[in-house]
Amino acid sequence: MPLDPQRAALTTPEHLRFSTNLPFAQDLEQAGGRVARQATGHLVFYRADGLRFLATDPAGNPLHECEWGTDATGNVALLRARIRLDWGQWVGLKPAGLVNETCLNLTRKPDWQRLTADDLRMMAAQALRVSIEDVRWFYRDQDLLIEPTGKATIRQRKDAFYVLEDGDFERCRFMSCMGAMHWPSIDFLPVVELFQSLLPGTGFAVFELIRGLYDDQNDGNSAPRPLRYRGIPPYPSEAAFRLFSSFFTPQVSGGNDPFALFMNPERSHQVMWLPADTPPVRYFDERAGACLTFQGRLLHKVTVASDSSGLSYLSSKGRRVAPCDRYAEIVGAHVVLTDRDRETTLTVTLPKGNLEQSGESVAMSPVDWRSVFVHGVPPIPPVDAYGAVLLYPDDESEIGECSAQPFVADYIQDIGEQDREIGAVLSQAQHVLIDNGDAVVASCVTFDRPRDYTVLVRYPAFAQKQAQRLWTVCAELQRWDWLSRIRFVPDEGLSDQEATHSYDVIYHWVPYGSGTVPASLAEHMERISRMLRIGGSAFVIGPAQLGQFGASHGLTICREEPVEQLPTFRMHRTILPKAKLRAGLTLFYIKKD
What we know:
The structure is a single chain. With 593 residues, the chain is α+β, with helices and mostly antiparallel strands. It folds into three domains: 90-207 and 224-274, no CATH class; 281-364, no CATH class; 382-592, 3-Layer(aba) Sandwich (Rossmann fold), CATH 3.40.50.150. It is 25% helix and 28% strand. It has 16 helices and 26 strands. Strands 1, 2, 3, 4, 5, 6, 7, 8 and 9 form a nine-stranded antiparallel β-sheet that branches. Strands 13-14-15-16-17-18-19 form a seven-stranded mixed β-sheet, with no helix packed on it. A hairpin with a 2-residue loop joins strand 14 (290-295) and strand 15 (298-304). The longest helix has 18 residues, at 401-418. 38% of the residues are buried.
């Protein structure tokens, strides 16, 4: 006989990890707690002071857990939170978990002795081109310290997100961050920085927590508090607008278009957000290993934890072509998952009520995203497929090999638009090789006409994500013929005969494991020379010593730039100032004579 949902929520191992919450598992009432069942059947557990410590679906499967305490001033504060993603992975939230400090010498300014915290805020507002109100939102008086010597210390606090390796903070890896929120009294909506580092479903699950706390705080009020987007600097995006709109409803004055107004960084804060009547809700089915997301009567998304594609199935409603030809629909009392020509009936317990049934047909695209893998998609564990995101340390630890790739690929893409010579090289290329660039394949593809791309795969999970991204771009452009000319092959799957003098452009990342041994570096240059046609160009990323082996293989080093000096990496350091690349990592622009 299944456990009572309330008891299952509190007593199942791994549901509660924070020590301050463990007494509630023994006896909820005796510990001063209570539980509320929402209209959807979801359970929310509260402490004696009315702060939620656990939220679950109707069956008692956890959605998030909160740890509350007090800050340095004695006020109530959210200390940490654990948030469960659709595919079972837990991520962590630590308010003000990332703090960056900047020191200024004010003695060079006239009458510096009279400068106040608001003067520093005004200087910051002018430098960042935002209002002083926005600056005041994120910089408290205690974050702006002016010493009698004229030294000013500015502390920038950000809420930090972590991948929780074992479901708790004992083993965690930094993932991303956002402007520090006022969690006990939510008064604005944030946008996450380093959003491409977010594990799938993180943004949605975090907003589920935000909306839950917001509802708690507005319970009993005559009108809910209106929210606005705040950020320094503001990063409005279409994805952020969609996420906000799932949980809140945009309100604007004067008949303006909410989306257009939001996308203007200088005016995005003018959009007012009020709670949506039917925010999305999640239901976990442990037997099926699936998570179903509903919004009102509509099935919005289904995620199957054992799916090696690392993709969810989305609703087909309103879509001409389903993302990667995968969609979910309700047929009778079942959920049917479609992946191109394969259908799977999912036996799950559906929410009670009159749910919206399938009725719209979805066209199948002419090309399967998996077709780019010449030998088929290699075996990828589901946890690796879902977890194929680029993570960056928040300390001085060295950035990993794959995570360093976007700094170069994005830079080459930028200079291709600015530098006439590089632009011509990229646009005129007919045959391109991407070697060990699994995390940035789509950034190396120029979507202007058909051309042949060969991708040598070393990290299959990242390559799979890039294949899915390529499919998405070609679907938007309706240029399936471009996708059919992209080939992913194993790193060792390119024959010498096929590769010799074949390519107009080569992107080559020297694997970190190759080290700086001269013989190994010379071998890489020999390989590039052998595969590059005469007059061809290569972008090679490796140790600084690599350049000295070019001439002996008929290669001319036209430009070399330390990756740490590229504007893309300098921009990254504005978010994570301690960011550190492998010493000597260099981008070489090479031509074959």
